[in-house]
Write a structure and sequence with these properties.
alpha+beta, 216 residues, 8 strands, 30% strand, Aminopeptidase, binds coenzyme A, single chain, disordered N terminus
């Protein structure tokens, strides 16, 4: 059943039927960024944007080298659903002007109304708050557009930038998984981070004051 059968517009009402791809993975914008739903045609720009091995230090996998293979993978992902239909697999390509900076992803478990989030940016884009801005927009959409109730992220304990980013968004560490994965010759431990959708604040949090404030 499409959204129109439910009176149109509210994707959350039709989450368990089959809303259109454009409704579950729409274009999003932020003050500085444009988040395009990832499609096969993005493969060449993503091969370039994600070419630096530093983007893969704390995650399995390596820079994509074969645009054709990436194009096939992206085409396969355009269904936005797991083969069993239990999950939405949502992917956006993040642009600043004409520059593709990276990708952000959400795996939405429909029955639980929870989403795992992930992101990879090229080093040229790091340290400018782009990742936080893009992920914040995605969380807002997941909460307000799809009525997701809880977010989670698993992060390698060595990945200081990713931990800082997710903590800035309000996630709290809830677990430590020792030996969570094994890649690039070593075993990795992961922190599990969680954030309830009701606790998520879409506006940037106020940075903590140095205490005592300078000048007092
Ligand atoms: C994780 C990643 C997206 C963060 O990107 P970013 O551009 O640094 O993110 P932002 O600029 O939005 O902010 C990240 C925060 O971490 C801080 N940070 C950045 N690099 C850091 C580092 N090496 N150590 C500690 N903190 C760091 C930033 O100062 C910022 O904190 P602030 O808000 O207090 O200023 C980026 O490092 C990346 O793509 N890494 C490779 C892929 C990856 O590991 N993905 C995550 C898998 S779980």
């Amino acid at each position: 059943m499409s959204a129109e059968h439910h009176g149109g517009g509210d994707v959350s009402l039709t989450l368990f039927s089959m809303p259109a791809v454009t409704e579950v993975n729409p274009p999003l914008t932020t003050p500085r960024l444009r988040l395009e739903p990832q499609v096969a045609a993005h493969a060449p720009v993503m091969v370039a944007a994600l070419a630096d091995p530093r983007s893969y230090l704390y995650i399995p996998g390596n820079p994509p080298s074969d645009a054709k293979a990436l194009q096939r993978r992206f085409a396969h992902q355009e269904s936005r659903r797991s083969p069993d239909g239990a999950e939405l697999w949502l992917n956006w390509v993040v642009y600043c002007g004409e520059d593709a900076l990276g990708t952000i992803q959400a795996t939405v478990r429909l029955a639980a109304r929870t989403a795992d989030v992930a992101y990879v940016f090229g080093p040229a884009a790091w340290g400018k708050g782009y990742a936080a801005e893009a992920v914040r927009a995605m969380l807002s959409f997941l909460r307000d557009g799809l009525r997701v109730e809880g977010f989670a992220a698993n992060i390698d304990t060595r990945n200081a930038a990713s931990r800082r980013l997710i903590e800035r968004l309000g996630f709290m560490q809830t677990d430590l998984i020792v030996g969570a994965d094994h890649f690039k010759g070593s075993s990795s431990d992961e922190y599990v981070y969680k954030l309830s959708a009701s606790a998520f604040s879409a506006s940037p949090p106020i940075p903590p004051l140095d205490f005592p404030p300078a000048g007092l």
